[in-house]
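Researcher: Here's the sequence for the chain we discussed earlier.
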Amino acid sequence: MSTLFRLTGAEFDSMAEHGSFDVLGPKTIELLHGELRFMNPAGPVHDDYIDYMNRWSMTNTSESIANIRVQSGFVCDDHRPEPDVVWLKPRRYGRTRPTAPDVLLLIEVSDSSLTIDLGEKADMYAQAGVDEYWVIDIPNQRLHRMLESDGKVYRTVDILMPLQTPAPSCNPNAALNLAELFEVH
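Model: Thanks. This is the structure I predict for it:
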């Protein structure tokens, strides 16, 4: 009989702080449901969309509205995900990791991970109280916008198409041109 060893968020944090994962090289690891998950290396399409969303984020907000982080972890209950782009409440986070209540907007760019991003991660983020979660659905050229976590699920789930221009709740003036994002002419 085999036994799966599970980690808590605090154990993961301690291991990371002590360099326990350094031997793995440049691989990205997330802690989800007590399991270490290795993330697939991003390909050029995924990197391009992350770059686009980072530039859009930086151009359409200010330091007084949000701190923008790219592929950076945060404390999400006992999980340690590393979303592609996250807008955080404006402050310094040098002494502690941001937590779910600090998140204003969380964005996952999804190419091969769509099922996980729309299922497991959406549930995890809703349960942690992340108020706004976007999934950039590359294969289907659409944006899944989830709002209003009730602590279990998102009460509002919209699927937006390229002719629409959604904006984050924390900054309604930051309209995202989906036709430009998906290069639809």
